């Protein structure tokens, strides 16, 4: 399948599901309360180009391929985006959204973000039930890059991280993600070495990943025993001269068993001054190859191979409770990290261009990278992230968004205590303000997306 067609299908799949599940939330709550729905465009805005009618609702495909919408009968506030005005049919007052109690309107507005969050939870929950939860390595260090952030901080192979950013007994994932959003910023940690606890400070190295700044600790965790295979051999490298080949399984270095990828890198670094006798297994037969490592400018000793590790235990079986806990924690972690990045923006600790904000172009690029590297199965993880962000973003108190509509309902409620109402003119001003904010945000994120190409 041509790459461009693959990317188009992937984008339609991810954004189509994320947006439609949101609109379905509004639709189903309105239907449950007996409100009449005039139209449900499950693809696009603007004029209707195709569809079918069931009862009073027109299910349609619209001309402008940007999102989807649900139009309640008699609601003409956004008629221009929703394909024109109503057909003028007299609708019973009992089926009109505008005449319903505020608590019902509130639930209709909440239905979209709620369904997005449910989808974001259901994807990791289902994966955990079927495949189990990922086996997360303990924060015991197996390899430290020469002259990297970890070595400069005084961390050694064999150290166990017992505290990170004042959190005791952190998981390796917490450490990794915490460092990722703190490039070139000192982070406190405590390691345990030979029964003693040593307080240290590490400054993650700033790295660029697809135009976004991340922090790297320059160390690897102890992942337990795994089989280590040669993924690639560089041309004109010591490994190539020694006769090493792709798919060779690495068994030992100078008589010491190789337990994982990090351990192999540590053994090469440890024996960098002497010839290396590397035992490999090829087609069931063991061979001993000799190579001398070359020192890189960074101080890293290399023989010119790429490695992949095959863990003995990638996932652990999980029941309903463990699966739900995994799903909840995964989503909470995304929200917490996003909140920390926003806090860094407002405190001046992070530049806007390094915040990882993505507009339409950036989202398409992310989806494109995921489908090319991981196939369509990998799209489910990005779908969960986008659905969660869509649900949370829509709860922000910005007019035109669901959160803005909920805010207006709250204002109307407060005014009703004093016998007053919010005039239509003020409602229109609020909607126009929200439209301006959203358009500015779209232009700003589009600018950030494009600037990453330069």
Low-confidence stretches: none
What's the oligomerization state?
single chain
Q: Roughly how many Å apart are the termini?
A: 29 Å
Average pLDDT level:
83
Radius of gyration: 28 Å
Instruction: Assign the structural class, choosing from mainly alpha, mainly beta, alpha/beta, alpha+beta, or little secondary structure.
Output: alpha+beta
Shape: elongated
Total strands: 22
CATH topology of the domain at 226-313: Pdz3 Domain
Report strand %: 15-25%
Main beta sheet: 6 strands, antiparallel
Please write the CATH class name of the domain at 226-313. Answer: Mainly Beta
Report the helical percentage: 40-55%
What CATH architecture of the domain at 226-313 would you give? Roll
Number of helices: 11
CATH superfamily of the domain at 226-313: PDZ domain
């Amino acid at each position: 399948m041509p790459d461009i067609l693959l990317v188009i299908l992937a984008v339609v799949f991810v954004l189509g599901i994320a947006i439609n599940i949101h609109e379905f939330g509004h639709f189903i709550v309105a239907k449950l309360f007996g409100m009449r729905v005039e139209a449900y465009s499950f693809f696009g805005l603007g004029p209707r180009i195709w569809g079918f009618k069931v009862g009073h609702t027109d299910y349609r495909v619209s001309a402008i391929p940007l999102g989807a919408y649900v139009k309640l009968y008699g609601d003409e506030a956004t008629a221009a985006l929703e394909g024109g005005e109503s057909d003028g049919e007299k609708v019973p007052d009992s089926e009109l959204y505008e005449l319903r109690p505020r608590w019902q309107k509130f639930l209709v507005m909440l239905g979209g973000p709620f369904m997005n969050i449910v989808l974001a939870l259901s994807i990791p929950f289902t994966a955990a039930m079927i495949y189990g939860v990922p086996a997360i390595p303990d924060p015991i260090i197996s390899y430290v890059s020469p002259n990297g952030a970890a070595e400069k901080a005084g961390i050694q192979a064999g150290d166990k991280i017992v505290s990170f950013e004042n959190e005791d007994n952190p998981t390796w994932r917490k450490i990794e993600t915490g460092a990722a959003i703190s490039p070139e910023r000192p982070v406190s940690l405590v390691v345990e070495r030979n029964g003693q606890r040593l307080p240290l400070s590490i400054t993650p190295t700033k790295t660029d990943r697809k135009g976004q700044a991340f922090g790297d600790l320059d160390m690897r965790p102890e992942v337990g025993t795994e089989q280590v295979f040669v993924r690639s051999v560089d041309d004109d490298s010591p490994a190539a001269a020694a006769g090493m080949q792709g798919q060779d399984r690495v068994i030992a270095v100078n008589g010491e068993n190789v337990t994982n990828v990090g351990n192999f890198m540590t053994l090469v670094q440890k024996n960098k001054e002497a010839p290396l006798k590397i035992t490999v297994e090829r087609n069931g037969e063991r061979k001993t190859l000799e190579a001398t490592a070359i020192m890189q400018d960074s101080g890293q000793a290399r023989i010119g191979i790429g490695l992949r590790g095959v863990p003995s235990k990638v996932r652990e079986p999980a029941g309903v409770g463990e699966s739900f806990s995994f799903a909840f924690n995964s989503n909470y972690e995304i929200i917490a990290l996003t909140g920390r990045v926003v806090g860094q923006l407002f405190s001046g600790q992070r530049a806007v261009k390094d915040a990882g904000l993505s507009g339409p172009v950036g989202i398409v690029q992310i989806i494109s990278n995921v489908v090319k590297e991981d196939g369509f199965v990998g799209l489910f993880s990005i779908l969960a992230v986008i659905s969660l962000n869509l649900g949370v973003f829509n709860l922000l108190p910005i007019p035109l968004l669901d959160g803005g509509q909920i805010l207006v309902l709250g204002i109307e409620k407060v005014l009703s205590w004093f016998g007053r109402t919010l005039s239509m003119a003020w409602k229109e001003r609020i909607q126009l303000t929200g439209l301006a904010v959203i358009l500015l945000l779209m232009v700003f994120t589009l600018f950030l997306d494009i600037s990453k190409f330069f």
